[in-house]
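User: Can you help me understand a structure? I only have the sequence.
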Amino acid sequence: MTTTDAAPATGTTLVIGATGTTGSRTCAQLTAAGHAVRAAGRRATPVPGAEAVAFDWYDPATHAAALAGADRVYVVPPVGDPDPAAVVLPFLRRARASGVRRAVLLSASSVAEGGPAVGRVHAALPGIFDEWAVLRPSWFMQNFTGGHLHARSIRAEGVIRTAAGTGRVGFVDAEDIAAVAARALTAVRAPDTDLVLTGPEALGYDDIAAILTRVTGKPVVHRSLSHAELRGRLAALMPAEFATMLADMDRAVAAGAEDRVTDSVPRLTGRPATGFRAVVERESARAAGAGG
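Assistant: Let's start by predicting it. Here is the structure, written out as tokens:
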């Protein structure tokens, strides 16, 4: 896929999770390119340049209106649900029957086809749609600058806590994820594959802390926890099953599971993936401009 095979601005793309980390950016990139977008969320929050529509994964009565007239859909599964396939797969079959021809699913680099949670949706997607893609981004760089637990602990204490040890991750910019999503949704040819998305380099959490310290001028340190310690901290904030899954992901990082860099972002967007320092500088400037 190249940067010259974008389809004409026809049809409507339904973006689920339109106010979320990747959904909001995908909406912005699609509308900027002249594509019609229906921005779906529980509160039908207005999104510039898009048609806002109410959508709740757990309320099928909201699905028909969201799908009406759409021929492409960006699918962000319900966050925190250990079995998203139970609600996502019936919706996708309904979407196909209503005329949606292309689906782009947001998964994760740590979840393989047929694996747990969204891995089941990944496995079923090619059997529902002829045109499809599964985006499997690595950990988001915005985890350290937005509303994520890491970002909150950085702001409050100057600390990042993980059970990842010295393991490295190919952290990826959410803007780059959205750029790939926009290409996958609108290019003449769908990718028809899964795409592992990373930034330009793999970094350890000590590296992340050092870059944050240099860019912001505020000391940030990484504190290593055991798997049990992290799971206990997370279980106080979320369902135990989900807390265990997140702790297991950190253990996999410690073992090297995410120590990789792919060419998916430059190959689909035609430009280099964004580095972490550039993202911190950009997000810090935005926060300062917004008075944050």
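Now, to help you interpret it: The longest helix spans residues 240-254. The chain has a mean pLDDT of 94. Let me know which part you'd like to focus on.
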